[in-house]
């Protein structure tokens, strides 16, 4: 499965282009580590650097940036990589709401 569909990537990039430092976008995609800790709710993507902004849930939940290239390189137990939650609803939850999911 592709980690980002064309529709998801276009929405993430569009949100990044619209960002002026004051806007809050809803989560577009949820990525997760199927064999351990790590969940990312992403709302923006800088296409040039491949850095995405969103809620990163590792040992603690915090807003910040993550590089998608690094996520794609990650291999957990049994060699499984980061996956996309196919059932996550695009633009349904704010990043604050994702903190309680």
Helix segment tally? 3
Order of helices and strands: HEEEEHEH
Assign a percent range to the helix content: 10-25%
Radius of gyration over alpha carbons? 13 Å
Strand content: 25-35%
Estimate nothing, just give the exact number of structural domains: 1
Main β-sheet description = 5 strands, antiparallel
Distance between the terminal alpha carbons, to the nearest Å?
23 Å
Number of strands: 5
Provide the fold topology.
Layout: H1 6-18, E1 29-32, E2 39-46, E3 51-57, E4 61-67, H2 68-73, E5 83-84, H3 95-98
Antiparallel strand pairs: 1-2, 1-5, 2-3, 3-4
Briefly characterize the structure:
This protein is of the alpha+beta class. The protein has helices at residues 6-18, 68-73, 95-98, and strands at residues 29-32, 39-46, 51-57, 61-67, 83-84.
Describe the structure.
With 101 residues, the protein is of the alpha+beta class. The protein has one domain (6-98). 23% of the residues lie in helices and 28% in strands. The chain is built from three helices and five strands. Strands 4-3-2-1-5 form a five-stranded antiparallel sheet. The longest helix has 13 residues, at 6-18. The two termini are 23 Å apart. The model has no long low-confidence stretch (mean pLDDT 95).
